[in-house]
Amino acid sequence: MSTPFDRPLTGGVDGSLGQDGGVSSLAGDEERVVESALRPHSLHDFIGQPKVARQLALVLEGAKRRGRPPDHVLLSGPPGLGKTSLALIIGSELGTSVKITSGPAIERSGDLAAMLSNLAPGDVLFIDEIHRIARPAEELLYMAMEDFRVDVVVGKGPGATAIPLEISPFTLVGATTRAGLLTGPLRDRFGFVGQMEFYEPAELQQVLRRSADLLGVELTEDGSAEIAGRSRGTPRIANRLLRRVRDYAEVEADGRVTREVAQAALALYDVDVLGLDRLDRAVLEALVVRFGGGPVGVATLAVAVGEEPNTVEEVCEPFLVRAGLLARTPRGRVATEAAWHHLGHPLPRGGALLGGAGGVIGAPTTPGASSETLFDA
Ligand SMILES: Nc1ncnc2c1ncn2[C@@H]1O[C@H](COP(=O)(O)OP(=O)(O)OP(=O)(O)O)[C@@H](O)[C@H]1O
Ligand SMILES: [Mg+2]
């Protein structure tokens, strides 16, 4: 019998990127296998995220001292920053087992009820992509999270009865790339919300050193700095680039990953100095060239690059925004001055661009200024 627990340990939003060996932050199938080998297994091993890690350590320690399962935990942030890793670490720090499922896998509330009633006391239930859970299941989850009880409805129509079912005290760990899509009541039931941030280059270098040790790769200091700088603040990407650079080092050089080797390899794989991959660049190019810098709605932008709006929004945009290349405004996406520079295009004359003097961040919007639908965020 197939259960929602059958899902592999990692995964992100749907969409198949990286077919060109690119640097999207989503994990492909082959990658999941490698990832589990590189996953940190304790908070001690977990690099970076100082705030979330410290807060979480306190939550877990407090719960351990009281001998009770900790509050429910929500982890939010872009793909590849370590949400799944942290969820599994919560289980291992507590010494309990982690049952894994995901929002899209829970189609009927009955699936969830069965899962909940199978939990042993203190278990961790990890629901990945929790923002995609079906509404009836979500409502069932409210009661389970609050009272460790669910009502199982038996029968249909006027004769239907709700049978209350006790469940063991458990800790729900939810992960989401889109915290904004969670309903208020669901969000309110999490006692701790960890907002994962992009990693600093120095932290990514630490991740790379650890991975290089595990993979048996010789990595020099400047080699790791080169890779870290192009990893878009994301450990998954750092690890992926390391593997590609290792291939290059073994085939084209003496196996050592130095700065020169990393530069040559990354140039070959179309990873630019900021770490933008082909899709990121395509999005920026479309925004700058086809839409004159915007504003343009994300749906339109996605069509222009032949991608799903979700992918553009969840995978490309967070980093483009963080890198100061793109801004989200109420009227749509806008390229900043830095984007024109980065792509090597001359700035349009007289245009009021974001990021320059007289930038338009927070500028009042002109409703109806364009015939396009710009409000799709
Ligand atoms: N803090 C960290 N220290 C070391 N390695 C890390 C860390 N965070 C993530 N990684 C590495 O990055 C990989 C991806 O992390 P993980 O699967 O936990 O990300 P995620 O946030 O769950 O992504 P998604 O949203 O796609 O599910 C892991 O396999 C691990 O190797
Ligand atoms: Mg994950």
TrEMBL record:
ATP binds at L38, R39, G80, K83, T84, S85, E146, D147, F148, R189, Y199, R236. Residues 200-270 are annotated as: Small ATPAse domain (RuvB-S). Residues 19-199 are annotated as: Large ATPase domain (RuvB-L). Residues 273-377 are annotated as: Head domain (RuvB-H). Keywords: ATP-binding, Cytoplasm, DNA damage, DNA recombination, DNA repair, DNA-binding, Helicase, Hydrolase, Nucleotide-binding. It is found in: Cytoplasm. One of its GO terms (biological process) is DNA repair. It catalyses: ATP + H2O = ADP + phosphate + H(+). GO terms for cellular component: cytoplasm; Holliday junction resolvase complex. The keyword Cell wall biogenesis/degradation does not apply. One of its GO terms (molecular function) is ATP hydrolysis activity. Residues 69-200 form the AAA+ ATPase domain. It comes from the Bacteria. Has 3 domains, the large (RuvB-L) and small ATPase (RuvB-S) domains and the C-terminal head (RuvB-H) domain. The head domain binds DNA, while the ATPase domains jointly bind ATP, ADP or are empty depending on the state of the subunit in the translocation cycle. During a single DNA translocation step the structure of each domain remains the same, but their relative positions change. PANTHER family: HOLLIDAY JUNCTION BRANCH MIGRATION COMPLEX SUBUNIT RUVB (PTHR42848:SF1), PTHR42848. NCBIfam families: PRK00080.1 (NF000868), ruvB (TIGR00635). HAMAP family: DNA_HJ_migration_RuvB. This is Holliday junction branch migration complex subunit RuvB. It comes from Blastococcus mobilis. The gene is ruvB.
